[in-house]
Amino acid sequence: MNIIETKQLTKTYGDFTAVSDMNLHIPKGRIYGFLGPNGAGKSTTMKMFLGLTSPTSGYFIIDGRTLSSGRIPTLKKIGSLIEAPAFYGNLTGEENLDIIRRILGLPRSSIDEVLELVGLTKHRKRQVKKYSLGMKQRLGLAGAFIGKPPILILDEPTNGLDPVGIHEIRSLIRSLPKQYDCTVLVSSHLLSEMELLADDVGILNHGRLLFEGTMEALKDYAFHAGYPTDNLEETFLAMIQTDNAVRKRGDFK
Amino acid sequence: MIFALELKKLRRTGFAPIFLGGGMLASAVPLINMAVRTETFTGLSGDPFSILMDENWGLMAQLTILLVVCGCCLIYHTEYADRGALKMNTLPVRQTSLFCGKFGVTLLFALLALALQTASLAFSGIHWFSDRSLNLRGLLQSMGFEIIMLLPTLTLMLFAASLFQSMWLSLGAGVILTFLGSMIQESHLILSLIPFAAPYRMLHAVSPEDIRTCILICIVQTMVFGMMEIIYLRIRRIFT
Question: What angle do helix axes B208-239 and B136-163 make, rounded to 10 degrees?
Fold first, then answer.
């Protein structure tokens, strides 16, 4: 069963198409990796799911509902981290989470729990503007996890983290579907990370979905299409280069 | 709950000290004026509070408007500086509620500043016009009128601050409008009730038959600017 589905989802800004006729199928309880170079349309798609921007055409369904049928009930089911962590720099980490907690109607203990989960307990009383980039990223993740939502949308969640932090956050994200029965949509342009993290992948280039399926299906597809299959990075680069070459020739409009 | 949240967001921003300091500065105007020109004012005939208002309210109103401009800019700067607004937009809370919360908080602090000014006017009246009968009720009514006159300015400024992520744009616009507002003549009723000009109007200077019109126009303007914010919140998703 798909928890998120899009149908011909398109977003244009003037004559620039950020997302083009995208048909995504994100299965429930799995980690779906959104892969693409910068400007491929990953963040725009995620922003549409969160109602931060409206689709130009097409639509999407999240857990059986369209966003137009009720933004608030849909957002109650989603925890998110978009682009870079968003917070109030004048407040402490704990105060920032308390704002989210109050909006979501959660008990006070949820703050301690989530701070422990992301390893920020020690720094809870420090103003966020004094946090390092990695700490801000962890706080952003804490803000996304705090309500234990059934859907997590994470846009490049390991940005700014050191290798140890990346490993910790990756292990945490990996454990979430089993622990909390949630679905994770995670974007990255770090292919090695996606290979270790995702069950399914969607590969985007210039707003167009080039491939969607499991990791095994991707390898199979790459083999039959004549792309290198030694590692995901080579497969991905070959797919993107081929697509770019086709676009350059004007075969694809 | 939203009101409490909005208050919490303003911790360590200087919002409360700005209103307190600004309120005290505006309150100092009649005290200083009376202290240095006692005989000029006590020599005037008429209601003491009308005298005090006539001689001081222009500057006090201007300071109050500037205070509201700064408050509105600061409240949205807090949202935009570290992208807190983006987080709020991804949470299950109505953005119109957040705007209403900000309106409530700014109004509360503006009331605090006006309360200080009322106290200062009352003290000036009691201290320097002790030989005359004082209409304290009239003073309270007058300040109540000023609160209503301030509402369109507050709502418009909050709306403007929500439009610009850079605080300097909204602050610049607010300061320019504050000075433009002070230039508008009071002779034309409707013109003198536009935002940034209305707070200069004084209850005792308005003819009794126009009081209701003034209040109605200011309330309608407040609602219109509030509606503009709601429309803006709805349509901005199309363009972002």
Answer: 20
Q: Total structural domains in chain B?
A: 1
Answer yes or no: do A88 and B78 touch at CB < 8 A.
yes
Can you tell me the ipTM of this complex?
0.89
| Residue B106, pLDDT score | 97
Domain of B229? 2-239
Which positions in chain A touch B240 (Cβ < 8 Å)? 47, 52-53
Q: Give the residue from A19, A91, A154 with the most B CB atoms within 10 Å of its CB, the best one to mutate.
A: A91
Distance of residue A142 Cα from the nearest chain B Cα, in angstroms: 12
pLDDT for A32-75, tens place per residue? 999 988 889 999 999 999 999 999 999 999 998 887 777 899 99
What is the distance in angstroms between the Cα of B65 and the nearest Cα belonging to chain A? 25
Domain residue ranges in chain A: 85-148
* CB-closest option in A54, A75, A89 to B90: A75
pTM of the model as a whole: 0.90
Top-confidence residue, A146 or A84: A146
Q: Do B12 and A91 touch (CB under 8 A)?
A: yes
Nearest residue, CB atoms, B238 vs list A54, A72, A80: A54
